[in-house]
Amino acid sequence: MKKLLTTIILAGVTQSLFAAEKPNVVVFLVDDMGLMDTSVPFLTDDLGKPVKHPLNNWYRTPNMEKLASQGIRFSQFYAQSVCSPTRASIMTGQNATRHHTTQWIKPTGNNRGTNGPRGWNWKGLKKNQITLPLMMQRNGYRTIFVGKGHFGPNGSEGAEPLNLGFDVNIAGCAIGCPTSYLGDYGQGTTRAVPGLKKYHNTGTFLTEAITLEANAEIKKSVSEKKPFFLYMSHYAVHTPFNADPRFIDNYKEKSKQAKAYAALVEGMDKSLGDIMKTLEKQGVAENTLIIFLGDNGSDAPLGKATEHSSSAPLRGKKATCYEGGMRAPFIAAWAKPNSELAAQQALAIPSNAINLQLATVMDIFPTVLNVAGIDSPKDHIVDGHNLKQMLGGKSDSAHPGNFLMHFPHNHRSSYFTSYRIGDWKIIYHYFKKDHYELYNLKSDPYEKKNLAMSNTEQVKLMMHAMKKQLTAEDAQYPEKDGKPVLPE
After folding, report:
1. Nearest-angstrom CA–CA distance, 7 and 19
2. Helix 206-223 vs helix 256-281: angle between axes, to the nearest 10 degrees?
3. Distance CA 309, CA 301 (A)
4. DSSP 8-class letter at 363
5. What are phi and psi of 403, to 5 degrees?
6. What is the pLDDT of residues 82-123, one digit of tens each?
7. Pick the CATH number of 6-396 from 3.40.50.300, 3.40.720.10, 3.30.565.10, 3.40.50.261
8. CA dist 368 to 8, 98, 192, 332, Å?
């Protein structure tokens, strides 16, 4: 009996009617979408039940709600605090300390910063290095990239997704954000979105344009009866906060920027729904696994003074050392649940479930390969761990349950390393007089009480473990007077 085509979506969906041996994969990545930028609650109470906070009532994301109801969401999913490091980690399965892209990539040159490491990997990914799409491509997949790349600066190998294992590239280049989501998407500027000329000045919002292109590629793959890997990488909800005119009228009681941001979020959510519908119509939804995620904490323009700060009740936002800077939404679900399908029996994802165990962006690489039946490369170090057991709603004692976030550059939070293991989190500041911040996230999930002075023994334990991992992953450090500054 012929096997049905399976499709995996990291934030997308599918249903399969034609014969094929391999599952399809779709990665749906949202730029700058934090944990609270959705109507789907990810934070939980003491019993592990999802709890809505005020920000969850600010947004309309019905398709995320549908996806979450069909599968599992993670309450403690960690990404790097800025975009390029996360994107390199998804592609390689490695932590930023190892791949050395530790800062967002500036399209026009080296974004090292004042005291950043001179040897950091500002040119990003390289042609023919081991990446997730390259592994999929080598194993018979049609690999499709749509949206924001930001894998390397202008002129580098990484600036062109076709060099990184993708057969198709639509709108991907060196830029990290568009000049505009409207009109001609910034033609003639340094942040112009390429390859979408037919949509210029048609009134088609950028989010919609790349969704139409993604759906066309899904249909083409289905017609060719070839398994596909679709990496759907939205420019939204990054600046500029242009209001998506399709949804702006849904937000009348917010500030101008807050309304525009909420409309951006809803437009992204419609994209998710449209892809799910296309997979359904193409007969591939039942064999599609969806993984939805953001690339770092929120950058929502809600102001610092309001109780509705961008990540509230989490502390901080994008580019900070706090939980609001590195916690991101993560949902995994079959596009159309069917427990009788062999693929869904092999990865049985419970409906409307929440996993409380820590997971990271590095885990996507081995997880997708495992679902697709592909062995991890033996000549490539992978820091991530297969999430199969956790996607099934079970705890996994083999998962290390730690996250090292190393940022040896200047930004909102500058020159720091944070290390989370178990309930404890330490933040080390390289150039501050008071180097240490220590929090117990079980008793203090919003990082209000620094315990570094009162629990020096835990500081020592955490710093020992942190420095051990920094060394193991070949970390680069901030510099002073031309020399690296190591943690004390």
Report:
1. 12
2. 10
3. 8
4. G
5. -145, 120
6. 999 999 999 999 999 999 999 999 999 999 999 999 999 999
7. 3.40.720.10
8. 8, 21, 31, 11
